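The records we work with from here on pair a chain with its fold. The integers have meaning only within a learned vocabulary of local backbone shapes. A complete example follows; check for yourself that the lines match position by position.

:::
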Amino acid sequence: MTSTKTALLLVLLGISLNAFAANIPGKKWPGNTTEMYIGMPGTAPSGIAWSDALRKAAQAWNDTTPFTFTFNSQFLDPCTGYSKNPANSNFPNGDGDSRNGTGFNTTVCGNDFGSGVLAVTLIYTESNLLGAEDITEADIVFNSNERYDIYDGPLRFQTRTQDFGRIALHELGHVLGLGHEQTASAIMKATIGNLDSLQEDDINGATTLYNGYRNCPVTSFGFGRSSGSLATGDCRVRELIGGGSDDSFVDTYEFELAQPTQITLEMRSPSLDSVLVLMDARSDVLDVDDDGAGGCNSRITTTLAAGTYAVLANTFDGKSDCGDTFGPYELTLSYQSSTLPLLGRETSLRGGSSTARFSGGVTQNGGLSYSNLAKSTQPVDIKGSIQVDSAHQGKAGFIVVAAVMDNGRIYLRNSVGEFVPYDQAGGVITKAYSKVLGAVENVDILRNFTPLVAGYPSAQVNFLMGYGLSSNPDELYFHAAPINLLTGL
């Protein structure tokens, strides 16, 4: 997408009875952080350096919201890189210098402050893939024609001495993307008042703006296939990003990778014009696709580092020539690996803990590569490996292997290699085999299994493996992320 830079002027008005409607425009910093140049020279009459008050104000936002200001102790003129827009002198022109300066000035970089205006924040933005803009620069210009000090408590009306600290607190709210609040109990109210600290409304506004995809309901998702539907009542993009005007529906999924992995995401629908959005844990957009799988279907293939990621199942805002903007869809997450994949964090049946590590995957070429997608006509092997907790090595124990079908039924492998139904009412765990546990236990979960021959031409099965100690047979250590097998390709 082509990025175009614009600029938005936000002001803190002087003492006034006017109030403005609550406003979270949706414009924000990618990555939830930015660096401020806070080295403003000089000291207030109270003896406190302007730069120290500015740092304190920024730290207040850091301590209470998901946003983080970092600090550069040098001074940077906020008008550096600014040029007046000939079409409208109140708006800057050009790209700025992508640095956030702060300082006193008699004008707003050559423009009049206006009556009662104590400070102005100049914000530069560029287009974002989700519709709302990314902030690329924010400079604060304090009106040096006013009288300032640094103090707590009520405003000093008699001497008309303004508190620099609360003005800085307000303007830094604009820097991170907040507009003016309607309520009187907020630093982000359009008029200065006796409040000298962040209020609940201020904190909630910043949290909504920077909570990212967690503003919407999030469904845990693993390798495999899941069905969903975009429909009235679903979350909207404008809710997810904390502002903007994009009313398209969105379902949000989250998955984890235990190691660097090549993944493929697909969203398919018979009627919906699908849009896939891949995000990292900070809600930074990594990739977007709307037709990579042909027609109205989308696909993203990429290699990701270990970590937490989000998938947005989305559509277009308004009518599309490709398909509807509501309807059912199928979401698939697959992987391709040259080594046996790690299976994420360890868990247990009874709440015990261990240092065990689990690996496992599906292969159709004898272990040269692994993927959860398998042709139904080609034999597959499902391999597993357990690095046993050192405290459990050399002790009598047992191995358990489970298969969870897409209808929810659970089967356990017995000692002769057959998968038998698990009696959940009885609670008896069928053991694949018993043995003295070694440092590493390699598990052949399935060998030479042809899905079509076995009666599974198109199916999803999740496999789990674990181990226990004969001295504590009711406890079982296993992996939270299953080994997924999708057949029918």
User: Anything to note?
Assistant: Helices lie at 50-64, 164-175, 200-210, 237-240.
